[in-house]
Amino acid sequence: MIASKDTLFSWAALRQDVVGLTFVGHATFLIETPQGVRIATDYSDGTRPPVTPDVATMNKAHSTHFSYHPDPGIKHVLRGWNPAGGPAYHDLAVQDVRIRNVSTNIRSYGGATEYDGNSIFVFETAQLCIAHLGHLHHTLSPEHLKKLGRIDVLLVPVDGGYTLETFDMMEVLRAINAPLMIPMHFFGSSTLNRFLASARKHFPVEFSDTAVVTLSRATLPKSPKILVLPGH
After folding, report:
1. Alpha-carbon separation of residue 118 from 62, 83, 128 (angstroms)
2. What stretches of the chain show up as alpha helix (H) in DSSP?
3. Which of 66, 159, 164, 203 is 20 to 30 Å from 107 by CA-CA measure?
4. What is the rounded average pLDDT for all residues in the chain?
5. Quick check: 90 and 119 in contact, CB under 8 A?
6. pLDDT, tens only, 140-150
7. How do beta strands 128-132 and 91-94 pair?
């Protein structure tokens, strides 16, 4: 499942069942599809991949999850909230990937509920469904889970407070039950280790030597596990 950054691009170009995933930092991942579509999640002014993506997704809760000035070379900028009000709705096909969202709420700075301020983005490519929870602030209802459908790879904020308390995040992980879960949005080893101490009660934990992994349906774990990529 794991490859070095030098081999990622050749694998993605040669194999139609392989997806590249790079942890850029904070809540930003670079997803690369078999046909070479590049997607940056929670693209912000402070955390960006080293290449210009074709698609950038964003979320509203904090400025570290969106950009006021996205690179003009990005073909599709998908905001996880609707500036005009109400939920955002995205269902977009770009070559070999379908990108859709499930809207969730956020807490405002005053503690009130701001409806539809976050989106869980789902990327469907190469028979895989990859979901990025964004800046999730609450557990998921049966309706949320129905909209998400089967998830194979889950990108999980594990800060334990800015998004969800660890106990509640465990509920989300068990409800989605993805074969592979990858932590993000943590602020150093102490934050990560606090999450992992709880996670180990439910799931095995592995550590990768590289921030780049290659994913395919054939190599998904047989039962759910957490894979930690270097970075934060």
Report:
1. 10, 12, 22
2. 5-14, 142-148, 166-176, 189-199
3. 203
4. 90
5. yes
6. 999 999 999 99
7. unpaired
User: What are the structure tokens assigned to 33, written together?
Assistant: 């599809």
Written as six digits, the tokens of 67 are 């950009």
Is the pLDDT assigned to residue 61 strictly greater than 90? no
Q: Contact at 8 Å (CB) between 11 and 4?
A: no
Residue 27 to residues 111, 149, 183, 187, 225, Cα–Cα distance (Å): 22, 22, 9, 11, 19
Residues 175-221: tens digit of each pLDDT: 999 999 999 999 889 899 999 999 999 999 999 999 999 999 999 99
* Closest alpha carbon to 8 in 39, 41, 34, 26: 34
207 Cβ contact list (under 8 Å, min separation 6): 227, 228
Confidence class for position 37, pLDDT limits 50, 70, 90: very high
- Measured between alpha carbons, how far apart are the two ends of the chain, in Å? 21
